[in-house]
Amino acid sequence: MNTQANCDFGMIGLGVMGRNFLLNVADHQFEVIGYDLDKEKVEALDKEKAGDNVHATAELNTFVGALKSPRRIMLLVPAGKAVDAVIDSLLPHLDEGDIIIDGGNSHYDDTTRRMEKLEDAKIHFLGMGVSGGEKGARFGPSLMPGGKIDAYEPVRGILEAAAAKVNGEACVAFLGNGAAGNYVKMVHNGIEYGIMQLIAEIYDVLRRRGGLSEEQLHQAFKSWNEGALQSFLVEITADIFKQSDDQVEGAMLINNILDSAKQKGTGKWTSQSAMDLGVAIPTIDSAVTMRYLSALKDERTKAESLLSGPEVQKTDQQEELIAQAHDALHFAMLVSYAQGFAMLQKASEEMGFGLDLVEVAKIWRGGCIIRSRMLEDFMKAFAEDKQLANLMINPDIAKTLSQTASQTRKVLVQCLEQGIPTAALSASLHYYDSYRTSRLPSNLVQAQRDYFGAHTYERLDKTGAFHTIWGAS
Q1: What gap in Å lies between CA 105 and CA 78, rounded to an integer?
Q2: CATH topology of domain 9-174
Q3: What are phi and psi of 172, to 5 degrees?
Q4: Distance between CA atoms of residues 353 and 186, nearest Å
Q5: What is the pLDDT of residues 160-210, one digit of tens each?
Q6: Which of the 8 DSSP states describes residue 33?
Q7: Could you tell me whether strands 99-102 and 72-75 are parallel, antiparallel, or unpaired per DSSP bridges?
Q8: For the segment 94-107, what is each residue's pLDDT rounded down to a tens digit?
């Protein structure tokens, strides 16, 4: 391989995501090189490449030496120690001003630490969220870079070329300072958890209460995807219901998949960070909790014969239930997005990210897992009010929530009566009802805390902190 120093972009980690992203960049007339210690992955890229502008090597010296200055190197390796190990191996070979981009799902605290370390070595570092899965990586993902603008400018052209496009606009933007990119991707994943769980709960209601067949479920979600619920997750859900099982003749695949969902931790990180910030995201929290509960398959199987509950009765009002379920999903999806964006607004203020939520909504419209028609409305809402604390108080979104809340209540009443678990859907409605209530019963919580711990309380009619000797009168 004779590349000299002609390559515009380098990728470390030639698994499916790394290989696909590198080929994506190469499609846009950039000369690229990939590096992996696994020679089989190097050979796989060599076989798959389509043109003379794609190179691969298992030798680090060859890889670094093939890159133009400043070197632009992206990592797509497992988050955690592997990222640190790759950075440590690279450092002796790099020069001042070279750029490293971490494109994995790294925790934002790790990104901050790495950024500080590399700043001392005068190496630029970007933490960049990448969403869209392997297909997105190959043909256009949503990209969420953060760090310093000086590090972004030399890679802007490459990233804009590789990103998904919506109305001719690239789904990538420099999001802000420090670990802004990884933080936004983390919250993206939290919203994703919420919406996936909400769809699963609506499916359960339609299947158990409505008695819908897989074909009917396919048709319902397909039609929903042509309207207000248009989104990637609703679209693929419709496809899932028409997939036959190639291992069991006459069966549909969805019915033979184990009901135990795994996770990689980004949903949990979202919940943890929200608690640290003091931000309520109960829909997302419930989705994380349900992943844990789903993993208790053996316990749940045993409990089914021991714990009593109502037997689900199928309704004879199938079409009415489908209409109610549509509105309930619309309502709860809006709430899940609202919680995520409220978290980003607070995190930006607390951590100094400098996020522009118009840009966040804009780059999520294409390529990413949570892309949906709703994001156009969110862009408009944040354009009208950059400091909007919560999407639910935007007049247009508030109107939609108010219109769909009653149908959501009807679905949940049935679920409570029938014993169908709807943790995320219930949490969405309770969040909405709590947010729209000007006086919550938390005055009693204040009184209790002061009673047993002298923690003091605040009053409605006076400012300051007060303490009472309870039970004295």
Answers
A1: 8
A2: Rossmann fold (3.40.50)
A3: -155, 145
A4: 14
A5: 999 999 999 999 999 999 999 999 999 999 999 999 999 999 999 999 999
A6: E
A7: parallel
A8: 999 999 999 999 99
Sign of CA dihedral 196, 217, 410, 204: negative
201 closest CA partner among 423, 431, 428: 423
Band (377; pLDDT cuts 50, 70, 90): very high
Examine the residue annotation and report whether 417 is marked as an active-site residue of this protein: no
- Classify the phi-psi angles of 54: left when phi > 0, otherwise alpha if psi is within -120 to 50, otherwise beta: beta
Question: How big, in percent rounded to 5, are the helix, strand and coil portions of the chain?
Answer: 55, 10, 35
Domain spans, the chain: 9-174, 185-435, 441-473
Q: Catalytic pick from 31, 49, 192, 214?
A: 192
pLDDT at 241 over 90: yes
DSSP 304-326: HTTS--PPPPPPS-HHHHHHHHH
pTM for the model stands at 0.95
Assign 242 a pLDDT band (cuts: 50, 70, 90): very high
Q: CA-based angle 150:153:159, to the nearest 5?
A: 135
Q: How far apart are CA 184 and CA 196, in angstroms?
A: 18
pLDDT digits (tens, 9 = 90+) for 308-338: 999 999 999 999 999 999 999 999 999 999 9
109 residue type, one letter: D
What tens digit of pLDDT does each residue of 213-223 get? 999 999 999 99
Fold for 185-435, please state it: N-(1-d-carboxylethyl)-l-norvaline Dehydrogenase; domain 2 (1.10.1040)
CB half-sphere exposure, 237, CA atoms < 13 A = 27
Among 41, 49, 185, 362, the one annotated catalytic: 185
**CATH says 441-473 is which class?**
mainly alpha
Q: Is 40 a catalytic residue?
A: no
